Amino acid sequence: MKFSFKILLCSIMIMAAAFGIGGYFFINYVFETSLDREIEQAMNESSILRFAFETAALNIPSKYAVLQDSTIREIGLNLENSGEGRLLRISDEDRVMVYESEGFAEGEELLSKIQEQTRAYQVIEQNGSYYIQTGTLLNAMDRILYLETMKDVTAVFEERAQGFSVYRRLTLIMLFSCSVAMFFISSWLTRPIRQLTRAAREMTRGDYSYRAEQISQDEMGQLTRDFNRMAGALEENIHKLEREVRAREDFIAAFSHELKTPLTAIIGYADLLRSRKLDEEQHFLSANYIYTEGKRLETMSLRLLDIIVTKRYELDARMFDAAVLFDYLRDMYAEREDIRLICEYQESRVRGEADLLKTVLLNLVDNAYKASEPGSRVEVHGERTGEGYLFSVRDYGAGIPQEEQEKITEAFYMVDKSRSRSRNGAELGLALCTEILKLHGSALQIESRVGEGSCFRFLLPWEEVKDSEQKAD
Amino acid sequence: MIKILIVDDEKPICDLIHIHLSAAGYHCESVQDGLSAIDRIERENFDLILLDIMLPGADGFDIMEYIRPLQIPVIFITAKNDVRDKVRGLKLGAEDYLVKPFDMVELAARIEVVLRRFHKTESVLQAGDVTVDLEARKVTRAGQPVVLTNKEYGLLVLFIQNKNVALFKEKLYEKVWEDEYIADSRTLELHVQRLRRKMGWENNLVAVYKVGYRLEI
Lengths: 473, 217
Prior knowledge:
The complex is a heterodimer. Chain A folds into three domains: 3-175, PAS domain (Beta-Lactamase); 207-312, Signal transduction histidine kinase, dimerisation/phosphotransfer (DHp) domain (Helix Hairpins, Orthogonal Bundle), CATH 1.10.287; 313-472, 2-Layer Sandwich (Heat Shock Protein 90), CATH 3.30.565. Chain A is built from eleven helices and twelve strands. Chain A has helices at residues 3-59, 69-82, 109-113, 154-189, 191-205, 219-275, 280-311, 323-333, 354-371, 427-439, 467-472, and strands spanning 87-91, 97-100, 120-126, 129-140, 143-152, 318-321, 340-345, 349-352, 377-384, 388-395, 445-449, 453-461. In chain A, a hairpin with a 2-residue loop joins strand 3 (120-126) and strand 4 (129-140). Chain A is rod-shaped, with a radius of gyration of 56 Å. Chain B has a five-stranded parallel sheet, sandwiched between helices. Chain B has a four-stranded antiparallel sheet with strand order 6-7-8-9, with helices on one face. Chain B has helices spanning 11-23, 34-43, 60-67, 83-91, 104-117, 150-161, 169-177, 187-199; strands at 3-7, 27-31, 48-51, 74-78, 96-99, 124-127, 130-133, 138-141, 144-146, 167-168, 205-208, 212-215. In chain B, a hairpin with a 2-residue loop joins strand 8 (138-141) and strand 9. The longest helix of chain B has 14 residues, at 104-117. Chain B is elongated. Chain B is an alpha/beta fold.
């Protein structure tokens, strides 16, 4: 059953019970007050009649010392006729009826209850009408008589019945209108739930960007907010995964492309050597190409292996002098005449694995030279900052266009889409640097302008970055 | 002489194609980037262009736009084995599309077909006193017509197109029979022997030890 329907049903049930019980008590209360009033009136009337009887008895010329039954009947008749709809019964000392109006109730139940100084009454039903029957004792001329009266109170009972029927109709109308109102209220209250259901379904169907509309600020609103936040996190994760898959596909496509070119050359030249008689120059050329293209494949596969190994590597970070790195770079490039390497650095201890950092710097310097004209300057700086030791490698070469800068660290990505051979597998270098720096809790920052050169920076933090913090990014 | 322009940014590939095509009797030129390719195409006349797609400067598709009005046949040679690229290349008006790594004999054959389609090449091959009319599919030896089976004819054309080149048994078999070569099969040997007798090439069509055959003329 729908939740809003449950709310509706429950509230209808509660309303019906409340209306019913409340109405019943109210109408009964009204009825009882009216009845009490009627009883009081009946009692008063009874007193008046008693008084009137006693007065009338006194006024009768006393032929006899004792009141005669006929006289009683006479007075009774007079009393009955003096008021409209008056019914009375008079009985003698032995509770034997002396005078009785027509239509007076039968039975002597009340009569037996009448005592001296007490007045009795009862409500009786007779032929579909309701009466209040009262009884009292009266003294007239040494006789003790019982006077009973009857007062018609059918109207009070009819009023009650009518009250019930009106109220029943009213209750139905109220229940109906309340139900209609409740229906709207319950569906309004459950709207956030329906929104959430819809959002969950849309997401199941694959639309991860769908969000539930936030309607209220209450607990439902909180739930919606939390749900949307969760959906956002999910969407982000999925996009991240998709990007990773795409990156992997791109990588495989690029890798197979990178493989094919040297393979074509190697197979082609080998075939040339085995099937033709070549002159010496061609022979050398072919053998040389096979060698250099083979080397290119080798470099590529080694670099690739480095990247894969680095991805799973456990860093063995130690403190060492930054000077070690710069000395190493100087040694490496000391014999190259076409290269002017300028190292400037502040002495400091840094944290990291020296061999890996050497690889990073070597790759960056190598790339810097590839991007520059022969003989131009490449500067390597090291400086202490608040957060860590900042390395930067600057060249004054071709520069990298803005839109390429993000992709440049992807394996096999190259700024020049031709994938020119002169780079000789170096395209994997930056991807390797990125992996190594990730191990150190650092990242490569690229600042470059086309025609002016590029600057690659990375910050080696002083403190070891906690795992949890790394995950938090 | 047929002039062919090779456009590929990989020098080894350019040189490789150059060596092969020169040996097959074509005049070849090669350039390594898109812009100089366009330069050369504008200044000189070529009968055929072998075009790589990924090039520095301007890519193969861009260059194709320049070539189209000139009506020069183009064969794409590329490492991109992507159906969309293939369709795009062919829609731009390329005659053929070869994916690296490709076989040089294959390339030579494709070039031959394209050139013949454009009537740029002689449809008559000559080797000694043997003449092969590719269009009429007619073979004559010293003026006398020779009757050859389909396979013999295929072999003959391959040998004449690759004069003085050692052709491997598996390559011959794959080209002519269009099937995988079975090492111990004597089918090829029998056909070569019959061809030798029919053409009078007992001394010209020599067996190369452990390799295959070579037509020496």
